[in-house]
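Sequence in, structure out.
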Amino acid sequence: MFEDPTVEDILEDLNRNAGTRPLRQIRNLKAEAERHLAALQTQHPEHESVSYCGPMDPTNPLDRIHFFQQVVDICQVQISLRMRRRTRAEKEPARLLQDCAGIFFKHSDDFRAIRFCDKDYTLTSRQAQVVQFLNSAHRQGEIAISQDRILEELGTNNSRLRDTFKGCELWGTLILSGEKKGTRRLSCTGTPFTSECRQ
């Protein structure tokens, strides 16, 4: 990539598509650019800190320093943005759970529609089966159920329960880990929607 003479095209492509590249690739790209930048700045200390813009000549040390610095800057922005998003996503379930402590969740007859913490969710049929099974067990006094038993109930012994709720914030808020390893439980009991809620 760095040997391509059309450096403006490379920077434009990186600016446009950096957000869709895997984080590991962005980190590797930044590390590679930093290595090139450090080597160039050692070879050409007179250009260590420069501000320059204009068409780039890949054979010119000043332009190459400018190019690699831009690559590092673009990658750093992406890394910072993604780490900030990841931190927010990790904190969100705990905050939501704290806000909803001690309440019930509402559900439709088939559990495909759920209202939890004043927010409506539409579940897949498999997600609905899991919540319905856990809710039924919870009402009968069986608070935590082994994940193996839940998967057996669904007829999907070879899958992972976590994958069923991938991207769904109910995992970690409504559906929690039980005290024993490998078990799951609900954070609260469900009650059916009233006819007023359905309207």
